[in-house]
Design goal:
Length: 395
């Protein structure tokens, strides 16, 4: 019998991918499904990026590159971080990776020893916990909800810290809640982080998709935080380049050196063609994407508030809404009792062809995640279907 690594014993396929397999099956059967489960924007890479990729192919720029990424891309990332975020890095502090997910795993792999605690505010993207466990770390969950607007508070952070605490995982704007920390909120957390000498992994993949407030990176708040924060970012969410698979980390020199060395032994370099596309994309963000997302958000909010779902928190960033489903639990719809978020999402899919994500996937079983990264027409139809579910569903 094959003996597997104990670190992988608990792993299973991503629940979101399993859900999307079911949705694909229904579509294959001819069902009309609106899929609001996927964390993928409906826009595409900038024209400059696709042109650069075509040129790279035509000029045979298709061989190995520096394992940390081509220099012009890393230089442009540094320029972006300086201009937009007020963060000064040298190209040697940037490691270009195969998506933000690899940038995150690289970072955890070089920092975490067996038994180290990583403070993980939840609701959270499931891959955080999976990756923490894969490198031998122990996730220390802090359960957040609407009472703190799904944001970590100084009191909650202080209470969670133990002698084994090494890293704080911070995701702003958040997947799945859209919660985005203001400068003032981060400044309240900073003294506690510094007092306990924590390292911060700041996942900023949604940072360009922020509404009516200014995004602030925690690494800008003090010299300690600059020297003890690893910024994770990429091209999937802001540029619609999910399939190009380009992410990056920006880190203090000593950590960046270890990340680069680790990646050189795992994947070596990222696709050369994708890097050329990213080199042009990074400085050509189309801010009209944010305006279109806000229209979709406003439309969906209006529809949700005409249902029994409880949407108290309007997120400041990302492209998700995270309504509470407590008002529908134990009620009967279409002859079925809703006992959980899974029941609700399954019945919604079956009866009106609307797919959303159960909050339990993110350690938040009282909520559901709804992505509005679609065309306005699709979002309006989704809102119509959601309202129709409630208007005629009581048994």
């Amino acid at each position: 019998m094959i003996s597997f690594s104990k670190r992988t014993n608990y792993l299973s396929d991503s629940p979101t991918l399993q859900l999307n397999d079911r949705i694909a099956s229904l579509k294959d059967q001819g069902r009309d499904i609106i899929n609001l489960t996927v964390g993928e924007p409906n826009f595409y890479e900038p024209e400059q990026a696709s042109e650069a990729a075509i040129e790279a192919i035509n000029t045979h720029f298709t061989h190995y590159t520096n394992s940390s990424g081509i220099l012009p891309l890393r230089q442009n990332i540094c320029e972006k971080l300086l201009i937009e975020n007020g963060l000064e890095y040298a190209p040697g502090q940037i490691t270009v990776s195969t998506g933000g997910k690899q940038a995150l795993y690289n970072t955890l792999a070089v920092l975490v020893n067996e038994g180290d605690e990583i403070i993980l505010p939840t609701p959270a993207w499931p891959s955080y916990e999976a990756q923490i466990r894969l490198v031998g770390g122990v996730p220390h969950f802090i359960q957040l909800d609407e009472t703190t607007k799904f944001k970590l508070t100084p009191k909650l952070l202080e209470a969670a810290i133990s002698k084994k605490s090494k890293i704080l995982m911070l995701n702003s704007p958040s997947n799945p809640t859209g919660a985005t920390y203001s400068k003032g909120e981060l400044e309240e957390l900073a003294p506690i982080i510094e007092k306990h000498e924590l390292i911060v992994i700041s996942d900023e993949i949604y940072e360009r998709l922020v509404y009516e407030m200014e995004f602030v990176s925690i690494a800008t708040l003090s010299e300690y935080l600059k020297e003890n924060t690893i910024v994770i970012n990429g091209f999937s969410k802001a540029f619609g380049m999910t399939g190009w698979r380009v992410g990056y980390s920006a880190a203090p020199k000593v950590i960046a050196k270890q990340i680069a060395a680790f990646q050189s032994q795992i994947t070596a370099s990222v696709s050369s063609v994708s890097q050329k596309a990213a080199e042009q994309a990074i400085l050509n963000f189309d801010s009209s994407h944010v305006d279109r997302l806000k229209f979709c958000q406003d439309s969906l909010i209006t529809d949700i508030r005409q249902t029994e779902l409880d949407l108290r928190i309007i997120p400041d960033g990302s492209f998700y809404l995270f309504p509470n489903i407590k008002p529908v639990l134990s009620k009967t719809y279409f002859g079925k009792i809703i006992n959980s978020d899974l029941d609700f999402c399954s019945l919604l899919l079956d009866k009106v062809g609307l797919a959303i994500t159960p909050g339990s996937f993110f350690n938040a079983p009282n909520n559901v995640r709804i992505s509005y990264a679609k065309s306005l027409e699709e979002i309006q139809e989704a809102g119509k279907r959601l309202r129709s579910f409630f208007s005629g569903a009581e048994a």
